[in-house]
Write a structure and sequence with these properties.
The chain is mainly alpha-helical. It has 2 domains: 2-226; 231-354, Arc Repressor Mutant, subunit A (Orthogonal Bundle). The chain is built from 17 helices and no strands. Helix 1 runs parallel beside helix 10.
Length: 355
Amino acid sequence: MLYLTSCWFFSAVRWWHTCRAPKERYAYIWPDRKLQVLVYAVSVVLLPYVINPNDEAAWLLMKSYFPGTHFFYCGLLMLCFTGTVKQWTRWKSISWIAAIIVIATMLIPVLNAWLPFRCLNSEGLRFWQTIITIESIIMMGYSSIAMGQVGRWLHEARDANYSNPDDFPADYARRVWLMPLALVPILWPAYIMDSKAIMAVEHVLLAIFNVVLLITVLPAWRRKAILLTSSEDEHDPYNDNSISDSENTESEERMRLIAEEIESYVIGKKAFLDQHLKLDDVVSHTSYSRTYVSMTLQHYFGSFANYINHLRLIHYEQYIAEHPNETMESAAQASGFSSYNSYYRAKQKEKKSYK
């Protein structure tokens, strides 16, 4: 019951708790919030074991629920949360396939435990346990795919490769992307050893895990972190007193030429309207290396993300003025933001930088 209580508490808090900004602006609710509520609320199916722990069907449901569902939950929530910068759509298909497999596998033990009659006899229970084992291994593979993708996004997020890094929660991703590995020694022992005593320990560990995860995902602290200026904005590599005047003049001339090439692509070809624009895209349209382009962006514009989002903010205001009947969401997307949430965060960050 401890585990179920922690799940329901998690669901209630995630459903009702948002920080002040989204309540006022109808924005800034991370895409996995409702999904988390659903994932944790569905644990209600385990009630038959709470009511009658000696029932064989209820025990099969309880011990198989964790390896059968939790690896899927981990992969699904990671992809949903970290895929905010549109990449999420690439993984909806595989996630739907995984969801169908989980539902089809777990539906039989759920019905067997809840219905007044039994769908499976003893031999059927053993056969279905084999099916659940296979499904659980498949879901470990699915969560591994999610871990690999999140790892690649983390790699891209370093050194401000995204035009809007605020849309990729790198700090949160670093906290949770190895979570499936951490759950392996927790979820499997009770299932493999068929032990209710080990299951009791597992419930305590998972309840603690739920509380820690809840503290981690609550948006209040994240809102503060997101509105902070990127650390890359604090250092200007060209303001180095050790550089001689002649070297500085040469650097300034090089920067000017690089800046012209950057603006020719970003502004001239309206590349800033591309929601998926990355620093690597800009570099590929100049005749200079990534290092020089990054240094020029920092020197002239503060950072790659600041520069691109400043242009998007200007375009948004112009677009709204020219299309008064458009919604804020469509105007934000037409201006290069992935959503109105992204526009709002960029706007708040720019306001704070001017204070």
